Fold this protein.
Amino acid sequence: MVISLLLLFPPPSSFFVTVMSILSCVSLANGGFMEAKGKHMQYSKFFNVSNKPNDQLIKLPSRTGMLIVYTPALLAGLSYSAIFPYRDLRIVMLVSVLTIHFFKRVNEVLFVHKYSGSMALDAAISIGLSYTISAMTMIYAQYLSREFREPAIDLKYIGIALFLIGIVGSFYHHNILSNLRKKGDREYRLPKGGLFDLVICPHYLFEIVEFIGVSCIAQTTYTFSFTLGTMFYLTGRSYATQEWYRSKFGESFNKDVKALIPYTF
């Protein structure tokens, strides 16, 4: 309790933000648990690993699906000025890093990633809504926090440093993944280079670092709850990816490569 008072703004008297703080963390953590149990969101390599027959799914090209995932959240960040004209430095920093994050993701979809498969429409819509609502709730919770005194320990500049480390590391490893394939190539290959020699999903690890940075910038209960849920989800997705690589590549897969955290997990 004392630590939270030092690090966080008091929770705002908003029923919506309170419910979203709980719902975001619990739903993302449950999503990570389901990923680890083999019940996957229908995108990327797990599109064909489903309990639901593919002929019952409305399919989109993967690039189109991922644009549906990221573009609404990007537009939400860009529309901040019209919705919340209050110009507090911490809000400006929060909106800026969220907008940069989703701008990067949209540009990676358009110019970096090489797609060969499909994505379920319902997955694209549900993930896109989740990102958009979460981004807007982060901004709204920050707006409400203006009524309170700043936390005793200011983390926003540490947050900027962590965000930059995370976004650069994520982009670097996404480029490694992209360069594994030539144009028209549909085969998956074991990635090498960077932290891929130590963990299966370093891009997820750096995305977690990004959102820890966002949480340090915001220092609100909702943003930390969302980040905690994101950590659970990406941990589950990393574990599922590790199992997928083991089943696909067999003895070629280095069993010493961890799922998410070097030398640990």
The chain is about 65% helix and 0% strand. The longest helix spans residues 221-249. The longest strand covers residues 59-61.
